[in-house]
């Protein structure tokens, strides 16, 4: 079976630094060749450790790491044909841009002329030719990132590993460099694994988003699946964009469960295949913030909707939508994203009572 | 926004600003002049005594050991290198420079290796560190006598290039290692990892990345090692054997030479010390300038 050179498989990978706590705790993961994969999670969730184990800068305590079908555990980075782009780039401060990019060729013993020829071609590609003789300290953040990319790409890796590549940049540049990374990946046609704690970055870039928590994978899949259909409470809350309500199942019929949540009001939720619930089970449900509609009390909500009474506690103007924070009886704020035009056609103010409604079918049971 | 602008922006804070010690258009606060005066006295106290020595060394043949100054000539400098009665200044100087060179090389090598080792914690690292600091705190003269006694007990004759080297290293090494710690704290391990990632061997990473990046710091360690060794008296006193190093020679001279040639010696050794410091700082500046010159500014 030909998996392609950049196919990565982690099988039961465990990493413990102190012998007691597993920083990475039994991770199984397949990343197809040529995919853009984002490892997403809060700091300390083990995502960087996974990256460093794939790169060969750490060895797993247990488990196998396969690249292109072969086990690479114990091999040095060069033998794995991976290249890593370090957080804050780790450009060599005493070498010029050209010498930084040509470093990998220098240690392979290429002549100065030969390695500069290749480096110059690479600099042309990433638009760094004008900066060839500068030192890293004389470059902007975006230029430094391009040098780091070029330096890693010159080794012709089959996998490029990026550790928080955008965290050192300001907001505006981050969005721009995000597109450049994606274009570069398409250009090179190799597997990119990108570690980030920013969910927007992950869902904007990745073919495959891997959400992690405490050394474990919580959910892996296409960005839209992760955002729209989170498996569990953790993923729903980490990705944002969802209201997560806890409650207790009252009754279950063939298609729906009636959940008592938010100060006793009953909420009907469609059953999800694969999640078994019985009356009396504690359960969490998720409702997308942009699926929520606010209705004036007295007006009848549409058919087949859930309606809760709530009170507006905050309004944030966000440009193309308005974020309305509500007290609907739960412990956390209930949030509705209302489109800008719709909100201002009948604006609600802080302290006003409204009905919080959503169609029954859009809510989801969480594991 | 400056403090003054701030005051305009927020009238409430104007009263606060008026009393604050900060530069204002009306001039500097009185505390500036008070602190200036203290600083001038500090500098005078620091360099005044030395400057007296330098001035008195330029007297002519009638010169004495105290002010007022009698004439102006280089007589005592000539005297220093020609008269036998002043002792073996030339020999002592040569020994001191050679000793300092040996100590410097050893200090740089060991400090560098210790700096690399202490980046990770290892079993007993705390004990090793405090043992090292301990030798810094130990009184030099006592240490020197101890080394002398031990050598005598074992039956080895001490000399400036054996026992004195060891005794001085007990002084220069802790300093060197502490400087190295400061240098290493700004060394990003990711540089080394990036080198391995790009295919460098351990030795290539050391030669092409670690040593070049740390070079200015290593020069600073060398400077420390050299100057500490070059004027070390206490630790050398009982360990140098039968031949004197320069500080021992000067000390001997203070006991039996009663002419300004003693001051001339002080002037000469100071010039040499400053020359060495200038060479080191020049080297660091050259390293940095060479890096910058390869890159057009802008």
Question: What are the main properties of this structure?
Answer:
heterodimer, A: 367 residues, alpha+beta, Rossmann fold, OB fold (Dihydrolipoamide Acetyltransferase, E2P), six-stranded mixed β-sheet, five-stranded antiparallel β-sheet, 11 helices, 20 strands, 26% helix, elongated, B: 298 residues, MetI-like fold, 13 helices, 0% strand
Quick description:
Chain A is an alpha+beta fold and 367 residues long. Chain A has helices spanning 47-55, 77-80, 97-101, 103-107, 112-125, 141-153, 171-188, 199-205, 223-228, 233-239, 340-345, and strands at 8-16, 22-31, 36-40, 62-67, 70-71, 82-85, 159-163, 191-196, 208-213, 216-221, 242-252, 256-261, 265-270, 282-288, 293-295, 305-317, 321-327, 334-339, 353-359, 364-366.
Query: What is the succession of H and E elements of chain B?
Result: HHHHHHHHHHHHH
**Percentage of residues in strands of chain B:** under 5%
Number of helices of chain A: 11
Largest interface: which pair? A-B, 29 and 24 residues
Low-confidence stretches of chain A: none
Q: Order of strands side by side in the largest beta sheet of chain A?
A: 6-7-8-3-9-10
- Radius of gyration of chain A over all CA atoms, rounded: 25 Å
CATH class of the largest domain in chain A: Alpha Beta
Radius of gyration of chain B (CA) equals 26 Å
Structure, explained:
The complex is a heterodimer of chains A (367) and B (298). Chain A has 367 residues and is of the alpha+beta class. Chain A has 2 domains: 8-228, Rossmann fold; 241-366, OB fold (Dihydrolipoamide Acetyltransferase, E2P) (Beta Barrel). Chain A is built from 11 helices and 20 strands. In chain A, a hairpin with a 3-residue loop joins strand 11 (242-252) and strand 12 (256-261). The longest helix of chain A has 18 residues, at 171-188. The model of chain A has no long low-confidence stretch (mean pLDDT 89). Chain B has 298 residues and is mostly helical. In chain B, helix 4 (75-82) packs across helix 13 and helix 10 (202-230) packs antiparallel against helix 13 (261-293). Chain B is 71% helix and 0% strand. Chain B has helices at residues 3-9, 14-19, 30-56, 75-82, 89-117, 125-137, 140-154, 163-184, 189-197, 202-230, 234-237, 246-256, 261-293. Chain B is globular. Classes of the chains: A alpha+beta (367), B mainly alpha (298). Chain A binds chain B through residues 55-57, 76-78, 82-84, 86-88, 90, 92-94, 96, 103-104, 106-108, 133-135, 138, 151-152, 155, and chain B through 188, 190-191, 193-201, 204, 208-209, 212-213, 291-292, 294-298.
């Amino acid at each position: 079976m030909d998996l392609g050179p950049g196919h990565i498989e982690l099988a039961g990978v465990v990493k413990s630094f102190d012998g007691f706590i597993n920083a990475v705790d039994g991770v199984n993961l397949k990343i197809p060749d040529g995919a853009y994969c984002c490892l997403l999670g809060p700091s300390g969730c083990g995502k960087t450790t996974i990256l460093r184990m794939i790169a060969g800068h750490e060895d797993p305590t247990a488990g196998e790491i396969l690249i292109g079908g072969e086990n690479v555990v114990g091999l040095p980075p060069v033998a794995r044909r991976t290249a890593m782009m370090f957080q804050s780039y780790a450009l060599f401060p005493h070498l010029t841009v050209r010498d930084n990019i040509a470093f990998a060729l220098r240690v392979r013993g290429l002549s100065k002329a030969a390695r500069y020829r290749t480096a110059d071609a690479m600099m042309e590609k990433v638009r760094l030719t004008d900066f060839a003789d500068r030192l890293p300290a004389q470059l902007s953040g975006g230029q430094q990132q391009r040098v780091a990319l070029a330096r890693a790409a010159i080794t012709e890796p089959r996998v490029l590993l990026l550790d928080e590549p955008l965290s050192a940049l300001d907001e505006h540049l981050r969005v721009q460099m995000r597109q450049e990374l994606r274009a570069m990946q398409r250009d090179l046609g190799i597997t990119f694994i990108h570690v980030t704690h920013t969910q927007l970055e992950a869902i904007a870039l990745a073919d495959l988003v891997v959400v992690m928590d405490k050394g474990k994978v919580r959910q892996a899949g296409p960005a839209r699946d992760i955002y729209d259909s989170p498996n569990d409470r953790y993923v729903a809350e980490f990705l944002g964009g969802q209201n997560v309500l806890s409650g207790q199942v009252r009754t279950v019929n063939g298609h729906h469960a009636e959940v008592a949540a938010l100060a006793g009001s009953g909420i009907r939720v469609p059953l999800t295949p694969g999640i078994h619930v019985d009356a009396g089970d504690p359960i969490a449900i998720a409702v997308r913030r942009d699926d929520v509609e606010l209705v004036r009390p007295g007006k009848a909500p549409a058919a087949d909707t859930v309606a809760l009474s709530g009170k507006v506690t905050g309004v944030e103007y966000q440009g193309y939508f308005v974020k309305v924070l509500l007290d609907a009886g739960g412990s956390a704020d209930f949030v509705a994203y209302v489109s800008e035009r719709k909100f201002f056609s009948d604006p609600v103010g802080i302290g006003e009572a409204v009905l919080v409604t959503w169609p029954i079918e859009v809510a989801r049971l969480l594991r | 926004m400056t403090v003054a602008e701030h005051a305009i922006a927020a009238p409430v804070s104007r009263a606060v600003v008026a009393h604050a010690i900060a530069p204002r258009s009306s001039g500097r606060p009185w505390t500036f002049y008070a602190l200036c005066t203290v600083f001038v006295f500090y500098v005078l106290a620091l360099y005044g005594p030395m400057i007296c020595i330098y001035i008195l060394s330029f007297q002519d043949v009638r010169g004495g050991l105290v002010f007022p100054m009698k004439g102006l000539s280089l007589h005592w400098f000539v005297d220093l290198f020609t008269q036998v009665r002043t002792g073996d200044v030339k020999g002592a100087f040569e020994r001191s420079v050679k000793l300092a060179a040996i100590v410097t090389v050893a200090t740089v090598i060991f400090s560098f290796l210790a700096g690399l080792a202490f980046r990770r914690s290892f079993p007993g690292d705390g004990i090793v560190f405090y043992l090292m600091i301990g030798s810094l705190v130990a009184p030099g003269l006592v240490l020197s006598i101890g080394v002398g006694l031990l050598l005598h007990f074992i039956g080895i004759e001490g000399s400036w290039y054996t026992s004195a080297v060891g005794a001085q290293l007990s002084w220069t090494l802790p300093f060197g290692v502490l400087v190295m710690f400061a240098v290493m704290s700004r060394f990003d391990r990711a540089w080394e990892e990036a080198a391995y990632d790009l295919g460098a061997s351990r030795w290539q990473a050391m030669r092409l990345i670690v040593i070049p990046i740390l070079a200015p710091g290593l020069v600073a360690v060398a400077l420390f090692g050299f100057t500490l060794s070059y004027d070390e008296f206490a630790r050398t006193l009982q360990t140098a054997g039968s031949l004197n190093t320069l500080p021992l020679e000067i000390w001997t001279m203070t006991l039996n030479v009663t002419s300004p040639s003693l001051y001339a010696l002080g002037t000469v050794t100071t010039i040499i010390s400053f020359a060495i410091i200038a060479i080191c700082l020049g080297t660091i500046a050259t390293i940095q300038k060479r890096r910058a010159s390869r890159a057009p500014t802008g």
